[in-house]
Design a protein that fits this description.
The complex is a heterodimer of chains A (about 250) and B (about 140).
Chain A (H helix, E strand, L loop, with lengths): L1 H10 L11 H14 L10 H5 L7 E3 L2 E2 L29 E10 L13 H14 L8 E4 L4 H10 L10 H4 L16 H4 L4 H16 L14 E8 L4 E9 L2
Parallel strand pairs in A: 4-5
Antiparallel strand pairs in A: 1-2, 3-6, 5-6
Chain B lengths: L10 H9 L4 E5 L5 E2 L14 E5 L3 E10 L4 H4 L9 E8 L4 E7 L14 E9 L6 E8 L1
Classes of the chains: A alpha+beta (about 250), B mainly beta (about 140).
Chain lengths: ~250, ~140
């Protein structure tokens, strides 16, 4: 649930987000709408109160509720991809893809462990090896948060956090924009939206803006020389990881 | 009528067997592994010497969820927000796993469902007329 709070907080600062509203702003909207209709005004004390309310945040597939699920979205993304040698003809500050990994996995029911995606682990290991960097070197990442739990699992699979500890990181603000490892500054699939075919390239757009200092109000305040994107297909049957470098 | 030996290792054959109330998979005679649903090429040794094998239908619950927002086929069966159902992964006694509907437990009390609960296969009739077929489910013993 804290992943949803954080990603909506980020998405509120993204003018292209589908549900670009923070959860507190959402709660205010619901209270005003109730008042206008003459209905009882909800008495949520805080975001967690709201997120545990069955009528405001109904169950979809236990234990995931509405605000744990990314929406169905229409959207498009464009990325200009050229060879390193000619990149400066198009921009003074290109980004360089220094690592790339892809992996697949067996059907969901055939896996030994449902708390990790093997494809994500193998794809990221491949990308780290190609780039010659470690998970700790990555300053910023956009990960496939189709559901809130998917962001938690992704940050563990990518080696950012120890298995079983990822759930704490949004609540502890480690993955917030001003945290040690900002995740999904765009708002992620959760708030920005999930236009399936455009979701992956959309992650590259956010990394491009952040690393070049062009992310506006949601700009991460630290230097970002290395960043990563992690995109998943199906129920983890396939995963693609890219590592981006800015060379000043 | 197609005999057992002639049926190809496809999902159509798998469903045909379900309609006959049989839980059938394939067995690799080269490396001795079982697959459910059946695979025509062994994912383990990549051999193509496979035979049909019938599973006992007994197993244990390995993972589950309770679904409140149901897909069309389950809405047609009366499931949904007011009547959730359980879906899960079942580990059979033979060691293979398969996903299916789970019956005999309260989907509204997902917190009380126990991983490891003993289950037995059940074939559930779905649809009417020509679209009538058996769906795979498991019931708590």
């Amino acid at each position: 649930m804290h992943v949803a709070i954080k990603n909506h907080e980020n998405g509120a600062l993204n003018p292209n987000a589908q549900f670009g509203m923070s959860i507190p702003a959402w709660m205010e909207g619901r209270k005003k709408a109730a008042e206008k209709k003459g209905k009882p005004i909800p008495t949520w004390q805080n975001e967690m109160d709201f997120l545990h309310d069955d009528s405001a945040n109904p169950m979809i597939a236990w234990p995931l509720r509405l605000f744990d699920c990314s929406p169905i979205t229409d959207g498009a993304t464009a990325v200009l991809l050229v060879a390193d040698e000619i990149a400066k003809q198009f921009t003074d500050h290109p980004l360089h893809i220094i690592g790339s990994g892809q992996a697949s996995d067996v059907a969901l029911h055939d896996r030994d462990d449902l708390t990790t995606l093997g494809a994500a682990r193998r794809a990221s290991q491949e990308a780290y090896a190609m780039a010659g960097v470690k998970p700790d070197d990555i300053r910023l990442a956009e990960v496939h948060d189709c559901f809130t739990i998917a962001e938690v699992v992704a940050t563990e699979d990518l080696g950012f956090f120890e298995p079983g500890t990822g759930y704490r990181m949004a609540e502890d603000r480690v993955t917030a924009r001003d945290g040690a490892k900002p995740i999904n500054t765009s708002g992620g699939l959760k708030s920005k939206g999930h236009p399936v075919g455009a979701s992956g390239a959309g992650q590259a757009v956010e990394i491009f803006k952040q690393m070049r200092g062009e992310a506006g109000e949601r700009q991460v305040a630290r230097d970002l020389p290395l960043a990563l994107t992690h995109n998943v297909g199906g129920t983890g049957g396939t995963c693609v990881v890219h590592i981006y470098e800015r060379r000043d | 009528m197609t005999t057992t030996a002639e049926r190809p290792f496809t999902s159509a054959s798998f469903e045909q067997y379900l309609n006959e109330k049989k839980l059938m998979g394939s067995h690799c005679t080269t490396c001795n592994k079982d697959f459910l649903p059946p695979r025509a090429i062994c994912p383990n040794c990549h051999g193509d010497q496979l035979t049909w094998i019938e599973f006992s239908g007994k197993g244990r619950l390995a993972a589950f969820t309770s679904i409140f927002i149901a897909p069309t086929v389950m809405i047609a069966e009366g499931y949904g927000r007011e009547n959730p159902y359980l879906a899960g992964v079942v580990e059979l006694d033979e060691g293979v796993k398969i996903s299916a509907q789970i019956l005999g437990l309260d989907a509204r009390k997902a917190e009380e469902v126990k991983i490891g609960a003993p289950l037995k296969v059940e074939f559930v009739e779905r649809g009417e007329g020509e679209s009538k077929k058996m769906a795979l489910a498991f019931r708590v013993e």
